[in-house]
Amino acid sequence: MNDIKSYDQEIxxxxxxxxxxxxxxxxxxxxEHPLKVLSEEPLSIRVQGKPYAVIMRTxxxxxxxxxxxxxGEGIIDAYHEIKQIAFCDGADTNTVTVTxxxxxxxxxxxILERRGFISQSSCGICGKEVVxxxxxxxxxxxxxxxxxxxxxxECIHHFSNNxxxxxxxxxxxxxxxxxxxxxxxxxxxxxxxxxAVDKAIGKLLIEDRLTETMCMMLSSRIxxxxxxxxxxxxxxxxxxxxxxxTLAVELAEKLNITLVCAPKNDGLMVYxxxxxxxxx
Length: 280
Known about the structure:
By secondary structure, the chain is an alpha/beta fold.
């Protein structure tokens, strides 16, 4: 897949997976088998020198991961608003620090003062409040795109071909971005589905290719947080192999996102944004 940068140079000493020996019983006997197990490590994100969030993720691609996270949170609207993004004390640590450009500081201040991030399910808050708050901070996506059913189905065939970490571990989630010609642009893989989306979006953000992105496909179910992330990235079509939640559908409708489910051997199910479908 020549269009996608690997970011292998950013993979740290912490591996994305490790070898483990497991005991397997097959009904006839007990044997030992080596397996590759997906790694999970904490990543601390600091903004303006202060702790902002700690997330669990698969090591690798930390810089685009944090860039995508900042976009999804509303800390930035564009990559140039980050003055500096780097590991603390070298690439062998689990901490990335972000320094904002002076012009962005006042706009980001209310978010930084919140001391909690929006891209996780919250307790004690109802769905209507979530949708209302997000609509206030994310504007609906323009309706200037049409695409064909058959071309969208092609994304499914590309998807598994780009899940290298999943093929190795059978554990990770993936997010794959496509342009308007349905060519893959960026892929993110991680133990967490939110992290996979942040990694893919972060790569597009750093490479200044978000405006080329027409569709993102996910391996996981779609929750409202993932709708929020693609809306912040201005991606008009979101497709997944699993079905969305009711809150995800409601938010997708409000933000004019075409939300598509592609269950195994069952065609496509379109939950919102049907006007973008062109069957000619």
